[in-house]
Design goal:
Helices cover 16% and strands 31% of the residues. The protein is built from eleven helices and 37 strands. α6 crosses α7, α6 packs across α8 and α10 packs parallel to α11. The chain is globular and about 90 Å long.
Length: 684
């Protein structure tokens, strides 16, 4: 039991400190025929200041991240405009200013809505609510009677979720043909016909009017097997638009966010949000880019647009809502601006054509940061956010390395010069290398499998420190896994995060992507998933964090404010799949980083064992005199790298905290297979 004896080794301390280690509990022994790895931590040698916004989030509308995800709206196709995606339209049938066809074929009924009681539903572009919502649904309820209510039914995003004793908010715009006396009934009902909550609405007339009411459920069980109905027992014809149903939202913000998803994010304490994308900022074409000016103000004044991932965005989750999200969670915005290039590789061809988009970006920055004396700051205040938001980073475009024309060089320069002139303190992020200007930061994206991620877990150690441009790893993930990562993904992620932490002098921020996936329908037509490795999964009612989410949370909550020197000897290797062509290759299986909290003296050493066997490791700490023998360990581990979490077992793999003993400034500890841990030690 020589390893146990080594745990009692002590040296004297020079100052009082609390030490935090990422290590694992002593659960077994590896083979003894290989030299024991040694991790050397120089606790008094600071190599960098840890950026305060190091851990953050990246987001875009993909996998029904907002529509049917974070955004609280429960009605699908509430503005009846999703059909704009599927209609076989000619060029002159489409109004690019309004993002909607100017006319429809006759007898087109709205997607995701059904009739009840013999009613007929037809999209009507001759009876618009306004210029933005330039279509309505005409409901012919002439068959309605007291014994057979007629109207419309919506099934939400693969179900309408309900909780017992909960109040839901209903709102809609309606008008009626002459002779209709109403009233209307709004209800939530189970799919087998049980009424869970209902309310009667009177006062529908021949003019458009907004109606609001509440629906309160009684006792019962949580369920997503429900629908929303809007019906009448009085014969007649009515028109509807912007039909909305909201549950209670996170921090009760109007037009706000889903509570469980918001809480998962808040628990991980992210420090920034990169938005609105990703591909979402570019759009498939110029008409469908992230046009922020059409995503502010009242939601009924927002026309919506086609998402680049194949479904309709109502844009109820627009620029104000991104800022509200930052406010709710306590994140700093990192704003990406449209840069004149779209996903179909169309781009502006000269400076004059680009200039309107440059001005649009400057105005968007003003919306985020301006006070009441500015035009767009005043608009933000009108939209419900009186205080300017802190903004330190602006990203010009997204993944412009796909632009084979080379136009990003001069496009970036034009944005750079304009932003730097008006907002000299902002740091400007490029999305690929440029020569004519020195970008403050470059956005570096990494999507590779576990083997490749572990193989590049020392990538930035060799980066030229004289390069003035810092690195923002704005999108990264270990792949493949579906719909959310297994423990293998979490191990690859943790190895990569060790690399990022060690190199925080050049890597200023990073964020996993994508963030969300609706797992309701993973394949086939109208599928809910477009990207198959995502941090957090959910359906209409429930949600879960993947093992990769918990790895992120562990790293984020144990960060420190200074990076300290760390090195290793005798690093072990494991055999791993070589790639698509088959075979195996040897990759390192032990990864590490070290930071400390300068105020308290806490030292944080993160160690990841990605091997399928336990691994003893000697940890040698210099720069301190002694460490208390007792501490605590927080461990994320799995019996197999294929294990994961899902809706049925949302907490199958979660970190567990336990008390540990026999620690010191030099000790040997055995790390379980497939493990990530945070060890906390008290020192004097």
């Amino acid at each position: 039991m020589n390893l146990i004896k080594s745990l009692t080794q002590r040296v004297s301390l020079s100052h009082t400190a609390t030490v935090l280690f990422a290590a694992t509990a002593i659960t077994g022994f590896a083979q003894t025929n290989a030299p024991v790895p040694v991790i050397q931590v120089q606790a008094d040698k600071v190599t960098a200041k840890m950026p305060p916004t190091f851990y953050g989030l990246m987001t875009e509308e993909i996998n029904f991240s907002y529509e049917g995800g974070l955004y609280g709206e429960l009605i699908r196709n509430r503005a009846f405009k999703a059909d704009a995606i599927t209609q076989n339209l000619k060029a002159n049938d489409y109004d690019p200013a309004l993002h909607y066809p100017a006319k429809f074929a006759e007898n087109v009924s709205p997607k995701f809505w059904k009739s009840i009681g013999g009613a007929t539903l037809v999209l009507d572009t001759n009876t618009p609510l306004n210029e933005a919502l330039n279509v309505s649904v005409k409901v012919d309820a002439s068959s309605a009677s007291k014994t057979s209510p007629a109207g419309v039914v919506n099934g939400g995003f693969w179900g309408i979720p309900t909780e017992p004793k909960t109040t839901y908010t209903v709102s809609f715009f309606a008008k009626a043909a002459s002779g209709f006396t109403g009233p209307l009934t709004a209800s939530i009902e189970s799919t087998n016909g049980k009424v869970l909550a209902s309310a009667v609405i009177s006062g529908v007339t021949g003019e458009w009017k907004q109606f609001e009411t509440t629906l309160k459920t009684q006792s019962g069980k949580p369920s997503k097997d429900n629908v929303f109905k809007l019906t009448t027992t009085a014969p007649g014809t009515i028109w509807l638009q912007e039909v909305s149903l909201f549950p209670p939202t996170y921090k009760n913000r109007p037009n706000g966010d889903r509570k469980d998803l918001s809480q998962l994010l808040a628990d991980a304490q992210p420090k920034f949000l990169r938005f609105p994308g990703g591909n979402y900022v570019e759009g498939n074409d110029f008409v469908n880019r992230f046009n922020w000016k059409q995503m502010i103000g009242p939601v009924e004044q927002r026309p919506g647009h086609k998402s680049c991932w194949g479904y309709w965005s109502t844009d109820g989750f627009g620029l104000p809502e991104f800022l509200g999200w930052c406010q709710d969670i306590g994140m700093e915005p990192v704003l990406a601006v449209f840069a004149g290039y779209t996903l179909n590789r169309d781009h502006v061809t000269n400076s004059a054509a680009l200039e309107p988009y440059v001005q649009e970006a400057l105005e968007e920055i003003e919306y985020v940061t301006g006070d009441a004396s500015t035009k767009w700051g005043a608009q933000r205040i009108k939209d419900g956010y009186p205080n300017p938001f802190p903004l330190n980073y602006v990203e010009v475009g997204n993944e412009d390395f796909f632009d084979r024309s080379g136009s990003y060089e001069w496009r970036f320069a034009q944005f750079f010069d304009a932003i730097r002139a008006k907002y000299p303190k902002l740091k400007i992020i490029s999305t690929t290398a440029v020569k004519s200007r020195v970008a403050d930061v470059i956005d570096d994206h990494t999507y590779v499998n576990e083997t490749a991620m572990e193989a590049q877990a020392f990538k930035y150690d060799a980066r030229d420190r004289s390069n003035p441009t810092k690195v923002f790893v704005g999108e990264w993930a270990t792949q493949p896994s579906s719909p959310t990562p297994t423990m293998a993904g979490a191990l690859g992620d943790a190895a990569w995060m060790c690399c990022l932490e060690r190199n925080a002098d050049v890597v200023v921020m990073h964020c996993y992507a994508p963030l969300f996936v609706n797992v309701s329908k993973l394949a086939g037509p109208d599928r809910s998933m477009q990207w198959n490795y995502n941090l957090i999964g959910y359906d209409a009612l429930n949600s879960y964090g993947s093992p990769a989410y918990y790895a992120q949370k562990m790293f984020s909550l144990h960060m420190g404010d200074e990076v300290v020197a760390i090195s290793a000897q005798n690093l072990p290797v494991r055999s791993a799949p070589a790639g698509r062509n088959g075979g195996t290759r040897e990759v390192k299986s032990l990864f590490y980083s070290a930071t400390r909290d300068s105020a308290s003296g806490k030292l944080i050493v993160k160690i990841v064992n990605s091997a399928d066997t336990a691994q003893p490791v000697t940890i040698d700490i210099s720069g301190v005199k002694s460490v208390a023998a007792k501490g605590t360990a927080t461990v994320l581990k799995a019996a197999s790298r294929t294990e994961t979490n899902d809706l049925k077992n949302p907490q199958h793999l979660v970190p567990v905290t336990e008390k540990i003993k026999q620690l010191g400034t030099n000790f040997t500890r055995t790390f379980p297979p497939c493990s990530i841990t945070v060890l906390e030690l008290q020192a004097k």
